[in-house]
Here is the input.
Amino acid sequence: MRIGVFVCQCGTNIAATVATDRVVEAARAMLGVIHAESIQYTCSDPGQRAIIDAIQQKDLTRVVMAGCSPRMHETTFRRAVQRGGMNPFMLEMVNIREHCSWIHPDIDQGTLKAIDLVRKGVARVRRQAPLSGSTVPVTRAALVIGGGVAGIQAALDMADAGIPVTLVEKGPTIGGNMARLDKTFPTLDCSSCILTPRMVEVKNHDNIKLIVNAEVDQVRGHIGSFEVDIRRKATCVIEQKCTGCMICQEKCPSRAPDEFNAGMGESKAISIAFPQAVPLVAGLRKEHCRQFVKGRCGVCQKVCPADAIDYEQEDEIVSGAFGAVVVATGYDLYDWTGSYPTYGMGRYPDVITSMQYERLLSASGPTGGHVRRPSDGAEPQQVVFISCIGSRDESVGRPQCCSVGCMYTAKQAILTKEHIPDSQSYIFYIDIRAAGKGYDEFSRRAQTEFGALYIRGRVGKIYPRGGKLIVMGTDTLAGEQVEIEADLVVLATGLTAARGAGELARKLNISYDGYEFFTEGHPKLKPVETNTGGVFLAGACQGPKDIPATVAQASAAAAKVIGLLSRGELETSPVVAAVDRNRCVGCFKCRDVCPYGAVEQEQLPGGRAVAHVIDSLCQGCGLCNVACPPSTISLKGYTDNQLIAEVVEVLR
Amino acid sequence: MSKENVKIVGFLCNWCSYAGADMAGTARIRQPAQLRIVRLPCTGRVDPLLILKAFQEGADGVLVSGCHPGDCHYNEGNYHARRRLEVLARMLPALGIDPARFHYTWVSASEGARWAEVVESFTGQVKQAVGGGSVSQTNEVDKMV
Amino acid sequence: MDDLIATIKQVLAETDMVLGWTRSAAAGVAVPARFHTPREAEAAVFDSTCVHNLAVHLPRLKDRRVGIVAKGCDVKSIVQLIAEREIERDRVRVIGVRCPGMVDVKKAWRCFGFGKKVEDAGGQVAMEGKTVAREEILLAKCRGCRDAVPVIRDAAVGGVQGQSVAAAGELAGIRKRFASMSVDERRRFWRDQFSRCIRCYACREACPLCFCRDVCAMQTREPHWTGGGVDARQSEMAQLIRISHMAGRCTGCEECERACPVGIPLMLLLEEQNALIEELFGYRAGTDPEATPPLLTFDAGKDAGGGGL
Here is the structure.
């Protein structure tokens, strides 16, 4: 056994609090170690070269690399030792940076711990066997979940690259939140003007299959070959027949809330969300429909010229096979009505959310683009905007910045002035965050050119008085109380993860944070990956972000998928369970606990039944290893003896 | 053995807690230096015998940490682990091991600060548990046999 | 006894053999026997010295059709073997017997002398004129027995209507002492107990649910949990392996403790583990052949534990 130990100084990241020369010296005394050295930056080209040289000159058979977290650079160094001629799994990484030098300022403590950890790594690598994976075919098709701008961008990029894409949208139309916006910051270009052509492109693209009113029901399989059941919810409208003529909506006698317009205005039980909807197909909401609530009506069926109404329609499961999945489920707006009691909890009609205001500004909105306040339809003169509702607010349990509120509030103040030239906007803010390209200039224009008055401070209370809303707040810069008689108050509500995000994450087996935003594979280096191979993230489902960042991430996710699916087959992880069939007693407890159905029964000549692992299904969790009393099923790379040796060595 | 020189073994799943510990490191959150982390794919790979082995080899404390229930990278691994570890935890008094010397918990990849708190409080708990000296003495005797 | 013999003969008609007991003239007590023919079955007996859990033989006979004479507690082992798919229900014919409570044969010999014939007569155990109340020399597990009625049976002898042969009573002897020990005292207690272990593996061989046999982790180097030595640490690790592997599986038949030649009170730990598994998961091994053993499954909604700090 010829082990080489390399101790990275990581500049001073490690060397400042771990005496790497002492670690090297200690390593030289460890069993099997014939070479040990300290390197300034091991991940650099010369650093990797030093490892390869040592492997070749000293005939190393195993390598221990003490440095940063294996989650950071394990792949880098596996490739390096492979270039040196070794099996990549004969490398063991020891984390003396994140788990040692960065958290222990005392050099003695840090050094002793680093030595313990290196000893553990040496013991472990001594018991390591060369591993290699098998290959599985890749299904050349992608699933995109969510049809907002992120999903649209990702789907189009992939489809343009020749990949068959299925785009699943929960609602009746694609377009997402962006379709509801009037103008976009900082250029004030019209949101629909830039989005709707992309929506139509999705509809018409040969490589895109669009399924609306649908959600992911079940996910099986793994990277390269997912099997997904998609539930298409019954809408009582036969999509292929509906021509989008909207006669049903016109004649429908049942009123229903207008969700597209964020509750501003009314719609019908059978409706098309908005005139540019894609697909342009009506949908019926049973909970509001007289046919279903009262048991008789049937108007839409009678008037439909295309015979597209089917009250008996049932949910349908559409199954598909995909090599990769892009999750682009976007965001919902924070529901402020439950947690801001001093703002009226939604009781005052003229206290509205930014999205509702967006619809009032929009030419396609319920007021045709004339700003009229909800209570009496009057044009407001004094408009108060309040930032950070449900963001940067620990008192409601939402500490994060929504990252778009400052900018869209500035935009709305500008648009207000454009719509109502003699109006005055007031903006209560905590800080103005305008870090994007052209953003700061934009928010300054709101003040200088459009006369918006920025007041740094929180609003304590809003209450109605004689047709006005009295907004009482603090100007923390002037150090005084402010009272404004407002005609309209717009709350800049923050972004939350889309409803049901956690549930979807569990189906896809990806991580999410305490706010149900999905967790990227690495905060810096794997911004669109997840912890589950083959599942990628795009847009605000990963965290609040604006349109340019969303689109960039969507294209990045698409590029990842295109790269993945360009390969005909994938190498599976060699870290899978294996059965020692000579010793297996055939109790099949491994099969009982396997979450992936990766253990099957194998009949040996002579009739003995033993367990057998299907490599392509095994994900390497090791549950079976523990369930097997004699450990005859064993997780490669994490065998009992490796773990026992690690325990023994760190306690030596 | 002095109270300060306790040795603690941590078994961490790769996907959540190990990443959480990485995050605590990246954020430079100072932590007690007694913990030695063994990285596993999943808490479902933690054989309760590893914990008993660690105690037998002289560990003063053993900490297991994985993904929060419902968030397991392998869907079900930590659910199995929870049953196995709960049985083990409750067996410790009968085996003559102070249950304060063992803990299992859940720390996600995004909970770096919480991980540091876990290390801090568990280290304190272990120091207190072995502070009387009798248990560590027993370990010393065990080691000599 | 005629009833027993007749039943065994009946069962033999549809099986390859019946596991039961016969009386050893040399030892004076019942010993396990395999009956293959009606003539062999004439020698069958059942009395309060039929202590052995014959279910231990079933896994190795899983390809045969086997009848087995079984007490309520033995049936639990059979049930558990079925639940773990070690044996097939269809291949086993269970002859349930009405159990009077089993005596501790070593205690009987201390009362009467080794090799003397131990008679079993209505609450008394007798030998050549000397008698002793059976209750006084009962096995510990028979006190407060909850399992006198066999959970599954294909035939019954003597009416299997169960009876609690003796009340559980208060903790006595070593159980009482153990219960009152501090954690540190227990540590020393086990170190001393396991230092007496001679690594004979009788505990494992007597256990119906230890079916790994020659690949048993108590003895292997792959995995190498412990060496083969007989010092307290190595022996303790070996025993911890067995106890850990019995979690959610042990039916409490006490055969391991009965088999231990140096008298290590293994049941102290197994009983503790069984009790806490019943408390945590509402599961008693050997009571339901359809139930999944608790450590092979989970209940995401109900299970609790972990977290915090």
In short: Chain A has five domains: 3-126, 142-233+315-330+498-565, 247-303, 332-496, 577-636. Chain A has a mean pLDDT of 95. The first helix of chain A runs from residue 20 to 28. Chain A has 18 helices and 34 strands.
